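Reminder to self: C-alpha cells first, then the designed residues, so the page reads top to bottom the way the pipeline ran.
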C-alpha cells in the first residue's frame, strides 16, 4: 500500500514542530521507507522535526511507533524515536 492523506491528522503546531497521528494497514518496514510520506509534504507541509505517531498493521496486530521526519528537497525520511 501507500501513504493515504485520509488517515493522517494534524494535531497542531507549526512546521518543524507539528504533531501528526497516522493510521495504516501497512507493515512497519513499508511505513518507515524513504519517500513513504512524500505526499504529506504537499498536503501538510511536513517539515524536518515534525513528529508522526503511527498506528501500523491496522486490521491485524496493531502497534504504535513515533517517527521524526526529515525533509530533504521534498523527499521525506523518518527516524524512529526512542523514548528515554
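Designed residues (84 positions):
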Amino acid at each position: 500500500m501507500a501513504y493515504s492523506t485520509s488517515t493522517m491528522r494534524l494535531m497542531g503546531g507549526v512546521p518543524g514542530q507539528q504533531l501528526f497521528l497516522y493510521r495504516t494497514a501497512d507493515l512497519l518496514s513499508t511505513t518507515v521507507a524513504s519517500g513513504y510520506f512524500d505526499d504529506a509534504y504537499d498536503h501538510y507541509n511536513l517539515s524536518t522535526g515534525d513528529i508522526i505517531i503511527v498506528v501500523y498493521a491496522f486490521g491485524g496486530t496493531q502497534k504504535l511507533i513515533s517517527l521524526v521526519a526529515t525533509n530533504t528537497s521534498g523527499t521525506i525520511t523518518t527516524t524512529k524515536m526512542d523514548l528515554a
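The radius of gyration is 12 Å.
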